[in-house]
Amino acid sequence: MHPMLRAAAGLAAALLSLAATAFDLQGHRGARGLAPENTLPAFERALAIGVSTLELDIGVTADGVVVVSHDPALSPAFVRDASGKWLPARGPLLKDLSLRELQQYDVGRIDPANPYARTFATQQPVDGARIPTLAQVFDLVRTRGARHVRFNIETKLSPQQPQDTVSAEAMTDALLQVVRDAGMRERVSIQSFDWRTLQRVQQREPGIPTVYLSIQTANTDNTKDGTWTAGLRLADHGSMPRMVKAAGGKVWAPNQGALTQALVREAQALGLQVIPWTVNNPADMDRIVGWGVDGLITDYPDRLREVLGKRGIPLPPQVP
């Protein structure tokens, strides 16, 4: 077979496999349980395991570069300075560092003295890993030929701590420009707990799906007073699915503890997809998959593949 025909056949097979995979297997921060979070090695690991979507977080540097990072400031849990020393406390804000300055820090290993190391004891270090730009992540996936892989990109900012990041408008606009420049409009969704950014995405790029994140626990709830939810309040809508639908969302992404099978059915009846986070225990995975959710976000995509395989659910292609 001619190489071009072989490549086309391979792409067609991958796309058919993806089409058959109704389930969206999302690697959280790449594969945080297995490799340093939100780094190129983590995304490479997720691709090799086989995911349909890379879930990741973004911030914006002092020189306006969109980078992949969960925290608005450098974390002492896994950041070392140019001399190799662990940060003793919360480090500089991303918005106060240029990309060049940011690249001086190593994020390839968890500090063994930090409690975070016990939480992710199976994470394999990759010394020398740096915080990548979003453009680099797009380039990685493009270079690997993983045309079936999507990106679920979370804007990381807080309406209660606006001083820690660029504004919601600036972050959203910078993100959308990188997506446009990379030709990735059709392959991204954008999610956030801060629904202001999602409203702006819907205004600026209505073709990009928006994913409405919610957390409802005894200690934290972003749904009550409208601060996080662009003025919407749960009490005014009666349920989270109805609230997300009213906001114009395509996907509801609740914390797993707040989800019930009845809510899954209600959301899907409204035309929403339901993709809870962050599900790491195989028993929980199996139970929630059994409810008929549209996908799961997990730190351990290898575990989720095993659960899905046992249920006979088609799996996304692996990308070595």
Notes on the structure:
Residues 3-21 have low confidence and may be disordered. The chain has a single domain (3-310), classed as Phosphatidylinositol (PI) phosphodiesterase (TIM Barrel), CATH 3.20.20. The longest helix has 18 residues, at 3-20. It is an alpha/beta fold. Strands 1, 2, 3, 4, 5, 6, 7, 8 and 9 form a nine-stranded mixed sheet that branches. It is 33% helix and 13% strand. The chain is globular. Helix 2 packs parallel to helix 5 (134-143), helix 6 packs across helix 7 and helix 8 runs parallel beside helix 9. The chain is built from eleven helices and nine strands. Helix 7 links the parallel strand 5 (188-192) and strand 6 (210-214). Pfam families: GDPD.
What's the structural blueprint in terms of helices and strands?
Elements: H1 3-20, E1 24-28, H2 40-49, E2 53-60, E3 66-68, H3 99-102, H4 115-119, H5 134-143, E4 150-155, H6 168-181, E5 188-192, H7 195-204, E6 210-214, H8 240-247, E7 251-254, H9 261-269, E8 273-274, H10 282-290, E9 295-298, H11 301-310
Parallel strand pairs: 1-2, 1-9, 2-4, 4-5, 5-6, 6-7, 7-8
Antiparallel strand pairs: 2-3
Helix pairs in contact: 2-5, 6-7, 8-9, 10-11
